[in-house]
Structures are given as structure tokens and as C-alpha cells.
Amino acid sequence: MAARADRVSRLIAASPAAVYGALLDRAALQAWLPPSGMSGRIERWDPRPGGGFRMVLTYLDPAGAPGKSSDATDVADVGFADLVPGERVVQRVVFEADDPAFAGVMTMTWDLAGSGDGTEVTVTATGVPSGIGQADHEAGIASSLGNLAAYLERS
């Protein structure tokens, strides 16, 4: 069986430099990274290789989607493993959770490729904890990419 890779792409009407900037700006990430139905807060911020951030995602309605870290939240410690300006951001994500189904280190690779008047953004997740369903995870990534597009395309 092949290793699982959750992958979603989207063309965003912004330059690779602008997309890269939105991946490394604290206020921008707080605005666009939380998928639909969630809000986000960054508690720690160190945007350099070897640095990272801690994000608390809160479900707007926790009744239908219990969190991994508490009833209403998902908390993730994210490390920047590789930063290539205008081309790629590689993150190592560890969820704060007591359930072993959410344990481990997930790698999220954000590849940026200039395409006409925009950027093709491809997000690939490997090492995804078994407790995260692939279809749900890909829908969440797609939602975040939609938020990123709206954030960058509004100006």
C-alpha cells in the first residue's frame, strides 16, 4: 500500500512572492489559515527555518466536530522545516492531543508555481495522523486555500 498523501491545489490570482508572504505573516495566517467553521489564534511566532508557531483553532460550533485538544479546540505546534522564498514552505505539525490517533508529526509542504497571472499553490500532507480522515482533511485544506485566495485577491 502506498503511503498516504493528502493533496489539494488551487490557482490563486497573486504572485508567488505575495503567496509566500501570506504564509509567513502572523496576521495573515490568523486571518486565512483556519478552515470554514473555525477561528484561529497564534500564540507563538518565529518565522525562520527552525522556528515556527503555535496555533489554537477553535470550532465556532463544537457540537458537531469535537476538537483534538479539547472539546472545542485543535492546538498545533508548527515548525518551519524549509523556507524557499517564492517557491516552498515546509511545515512540521504536531497536534496537542491525548488520543494516540492524532499523535505524530505531519509534514505540510506548500509548493508555489507561477502560472500566468497567478500562482498554483499545491499543499501536500504526509504523515497525517490516522484519526484525521483523508476526505475531511482535503476539504479543510481546500477551505484554507479558498480563504488564502480571498485574502490575497481582495486587494
UniProtKB/TrEMBL annotation:
CDD domains, alphabetized: SRPBCC_CalC_Aha1-like_2
Sequence ranges assigned to domain Activator of Hsp90 ATPase homologue 1/2-like C-terminal in this UniProt record: 14-153
Family: Belongs to the AHA1 family.
UniProt protein name: Activator of Hsp90 ATPase homologue 1/2-like C-terminal domain-containing protein
Superkingdom of the source species: Bacteria
